[in-house]
Design a protein that fits this description.
By secondary structure, the protein is of the alpha/beta class. It has four domains: 98 residues, Glutaredoxin (3-Layer(aba) Sandwich), CATH 3.40.30; 210 residues, NADH-ubiquinone oxidoreductase 51kDa subunit (Rossmann fold, 3-Layer(aba) Sandwich), CATH 3.40.50; 91 residues, Ubiquitin-like (UB roll), CATH 3.10.20.600; 84 residues, NADH-ubiquinone oxidoreductase 51kDa subunit, iron-sulphur binding domain (de novo design (two linked rop proteins), Up-down Bundle), CATH 1.20.1440. It is 41% helix and 15% strand. It has 21 helices and 16 strands. The strands form four sheets. It has a five-stranded mixed β-sheet with strand order 2-1-3-4-5, with helices on one face. Helix 6 runs parallel beside helix 10 and helix 17 runs antiparallel to helix 18. The chain starts with a strand and ends in a 9-residue tail after the last helix. The model has no long low-confidence stretch (mean pLDDT 94). It comes from Dokdonella soli. Belongs to the complex I 51 kDa subunit family.
Length: 514
């Protein structure tokens, strides 16, 4: 079909929810009706959700984008010369010239939206598996050193240096070691893991394979959130294609090196995003937090040394091996090196994914990328880092995206999700939700989290009702201290953060309500 129209339509879950399948089918049908041959390539999302379904047409000079394209828009697009990239009210031009996209630093997401996610040939043509080829020529210790020198830190929230974790597993003697990907993405306002797995699953496969070579592991598991059916299908198909092309299995690219990989569905519990609960679940047990030490790097899955990183951490590895540690380290600021896929959600005009080097400010993200609030009202607060992240007021919007900068204001970057709220938000209700969330999602293993969060909801309700307010404010503070310092894991330990920040920055919302 060399002379066929080549049309790219996203199959990302967000695009599908907005009618991308109907749009793709309408384009194919309209082309047939006009006697035109058309090749429809289903891709990942470019990350601009407000123009999904996004459609791109390949012209001799460049790919030209249109959006949002509904099925009913297709006949008029063809009438206007869509096949040659002609003018139309929905025409956006080349994606890399759109301000939202052109200012980004696309490293991990460089191929998403460009290639067929399941095509090994497309992946290789766009630089895929070059990092793996380099790793196959290196000693395992040198692979670990490259990841360490890059400054890559865990992108799942804890921000622990990836190289140190890998070195621990590398240095621990064992007959069997494992690589586990935490793909149980459950924080509010986060979707970068899903987008990567749906839009470039071979990148995750390559990163995990490199990790296996680095530490001497021959078996990998992707622990996938059960609510991600599209990602599940994409991963299974991509893994099968990687096996067929010799990039997985007993003899990777004729190297006599082995790495096997499979997907396991998660248990549907938020707590299983915590690495030790995840391991219990992966072993077929109820997901509960384990005591540390021993660390999973020493005694992890089935009691063996295990590397556990999240999707974006593994997906960042191929470019480090391909371009070198210094290339990756040159992005970012301070101890926050490389790029972070930042997810914009909530009350914003332009929601979606922004991959940027560390150092961009919250204000830039909210207004230069996000376009301000969707409602047109002032943005009052943002929550960064998931449902247990702190609420930040407008006075802190100039904080740069940097792990240490956020820690300095009592906040965390977490998985890079940002949820915006306008001035109609009730911050008392947001604080109460955090306590209730902890009570519902607690694994129940430790008393501070299991009981403290339940009592916290009751105390907040008494405060709102005006019952012994001074006494209950003191009790709330005491409960938060107990949760923070007495909980076994971060679920209970971080629950006080949204409550504390809401009370500190928005005390007026804790007034008695009639």
């Amino acid at each position: 079909m060399s002379d066929a129209l080549k049309v790219y339509v996203s199959r990302d879950a967000t695009a599908l929810a907005l009618g991308a399948d109907a749009t793709a089918n309408a384009i194919a049908a309209e082309a047939r009706a006009r006697g035109l041959a058309a090749e429809i390539v289903r891709t990942g999302s470019r990350g601009m959700f407000w123009v999904e379904p996004l459609v791109e047409i390949a012209t001799p000079a460049r790919r030209v984008a249109y959006g949002p394209v509904r099925a009913t828009d297709v006949p008029a697009l063809f009438d206007a010369g869509f096949a040659t990239g002609s003018a139309h009210a929905l025409k956006l031009g080349a994606v890399d010239e759109i301000p939202f996209f052109s200012k980004q630093d696309r490293l991990t997401f460089a191929r998403v939206g460009i290639t067929d996610p399941l095509s090994v040939a497309d992946y290789v043509a766009q630089g895929g598996f070059r990092g793996l080829a380099q790793a196959l020529s290196m000693a395992p210790a040198n692979i670990v050193a490259a990841v360490t020198d890059s400054g890559l830190r865990g992108r799942g929230g804890a921000a622990f240096p990836t190289g140190i974790k890998w070195k621990t597993v590398h240095d621990t003697d064992a007959m069997q070691k494992y690589i586990v990907c935490n793909a149980d993405e459950g924080d509010s306002g986060t979707f970068s893991d899903r987008m990567l797995m749906e839009g470039d699953p071979l990148c995750l496969i390559e990163g995990m394979t490199i990790a296996g070579l680095a530490v001497g592991a021959t078996q990998g598991y992707i622990y996938l959130r059960s609510e991600y059916p599209h990602a599940h299908r994409a991963l299974d198909a991509a893994i099968a294609n990687a096996y067929a092309a010799g990039y997985l299995g007993a003899d990777i690219r004729n190297s006599a090196r082995r790495f096997d990989l499979e997907v396991r569905l998660g248990a549907g519990a938020y707590i299983c995003g915590e690495e030790t609960s995840l391991l219990d679940s992966l072993e077929g047990k109820r997901g509960q937090v384990r005591f540390k030490p021993p660390l999973p790097a020493v005694k992890g899955l089935f009691g063996q040394p295990t590397v556990i990183n999240n999707v974006i951490s593994f997906a960042s590895v191929p470019i480090i091996l391909d371009k070198g540690a210094a290339f990756y380290r040159d992005y970012g600021i301070g101890r926050s090196r490389g790029t972070l896929p930042i997810q914009l959600a909530g009350n914003l005009k332009h929601t979606g994914l922004v991959e940027s080097a560390f150092g961009v400010t919250l204000r830039e993200l909210l207004y230069d990328y996000g376009g301000g609030s969707y409602s047109g009202r002032p943005i009052r607060t943002v929550q960064v880092g998931g449902p247990l992240g702190a609420y930040l007021p407008e006075s802190q919007f100039d904080t740069p995206i940097d792990y240490e900068a956020f820690a300095a204001i009592g906040a965390m970057l977490g998985h890079g999700g940002i949820v915006a709220f306008d001035d109609s938000v009730d911050m008392f209700e947001q604080a109460r939700y955090a306590m209730e969330f902890c009570a519902v999602e607690s694994c129940g293993k430790c008393t501070p989290c299991r009981i403290g969060s339940t009592r916290g909801v009751e105390v907040l309700d008494r405060i709102r009702a005006g019952i012994e307010r001074d006494k209950n404010f003191a009790l709330l503070k005491d409960l938060c201290e107990t949760l923070r310092f007495g909980s076994l894991c971060a679920l209970g330990g971080l629950t006080p953060d949204p409550v504390r920040s809401a009370l500190e920055h928005f005390p007026e919302d804790f007034a008695v309500r009639a």
